[in-house]
Write a structure and sequence with these properties.
heterodimer, A: 94 residues, alpha+beta, Arc Repressor Mutant, subunit A, three-stranded antiparallel β-sheet, 20% strand, B: 202 residues, mainly alpha, 81% helix, elongated
Chain lengths: 94, 202
């Protein structure tokens, strides 16, 4: 039987963000924007959704008087990501 | 990327693989920069100390060695600042581990330098310092699984034992050569390979 795909991760931008964060300790907004080639508005909305689900933690700070948003994946996010990959594998028969 | 574009299963796996690959390539590219900077700075300082000692014979010129960490950190800081502005900030678990390793090694090397000055040369400082640095390069290579760093690092470990026999001004020139082997050459190789891979992936 196929596992159900997490709808929160089954979207291009949110999946891209999670794939970047899974390899890192933390990354800021500019880095995520460069890596995903998303617009600032889109990225901001998707980060809020991932944060509301508890998949990522967002920390807002200031550096040299400029606002800085730093994101890191949570243990729940990591587990969800692993489950998502397992589900994908079962669909593709990998 | 569009906000809510849904992917099929294969596209999802491809996207995950591509993103993780891009992050790793960036980590590799960034790992090369401190090696290249510290390698060149160390070579230039070695050559400067050798020229100064050869021309004057004044041992106080050995204080120039202290310029390696100062110049190295300043240059790395400037390069990093520029990178942060354009590419943003990210820190991988591996980068944190490698940077802690080098902070520890730098402190031990500094202590060795201080002990050398206190004991007035009755301490095999070049041998111990080069051995520590080459172990650092080898471990960094093992952590990022980059073979040229591992091979050049091990070669450097073997070369460091030469400092037990080679003394005087020649040992200073040998230091410059060791830094070229353990940092400059593999650093450029890694930078070139990562940049090439990154370009073809974008």
């Amino acid at each position: 039987m196929f596992k159900e795909l997490d709808p929160l991760l089954h979207s291009e931008l949110r999946l891209a963000v999670m794939s970047v964060l899974v390899s890192l300790k933390e990354a800021d907004f500019v880095y995520l924007q460069k890596q995903t080639a998303a617009t600032a508005g889109n990225l901001s909305i998707q980060l809020d959704k991932l944060s509301a689900a508890g998949y990522i933690k967002i920390k807002k700070t200031f550096k040299e008087k400029k606002p800085r948003t730093v994101c890191r994946i949570t243990p729940e996010g990591l587990a969800a990501f692993h489950n998502y990959i397992e589900a994908l594998k079962s669909y593709l028969g990998v | 990327m569009k906000t809510e574009k849904t992917l099929n299963e294969k596209e999802s796996l491809d996207l995950i693989a591509r993103m993780i690959d891009n992050v790793h390539m960036k980590i590799e590219k960034n790992a090369a920069i401190p090696m290249i900077v510290f390698g060149y700075v160390s070579m230039i300082i070695s050559l400067s100390v050798w020229v100064a000692l050869r021309m004057t014979g004044n041992n106080l010129y050995n204080l120039l060695w202290a310029a390696i960490p100062v110049l190295g950190w300043i240059l790395c800081g400037l390069i990093n600042r520029n990178r942060v502005r354009t590419e943003g900030v990210s820190r991988s678990h591996m980068e944190v581990l490698i940077s802690r390793l080098w902070i520890l090694l730098s402190v031990v090397v500094l202590l060795c330098m201080i002990v050398t000055f206190i004991l007035q040369g009755n301490f095999p400082s070049f041998f111990i310092i080069i051995l520590l640095l080459t172990i650092g390069v080898t471990l960094s290579g093992l952590m990022v699984l980059y073979r040229p760093f591992i091979i050049c690092g091990i070669l450097g470990i073997l070369l460091s034992f030469l400092f037990l026999w080679v003394k005087g001004l020649e040992s200073i020139l040998l230091i410059g050569a060791v830094f070229a082997i353990i940092m400059v050459i593999p650093g450029h190789m890694l930078h070139y390979a990562a940049a090439k891979k990154y370009k073809s992936n974008v």
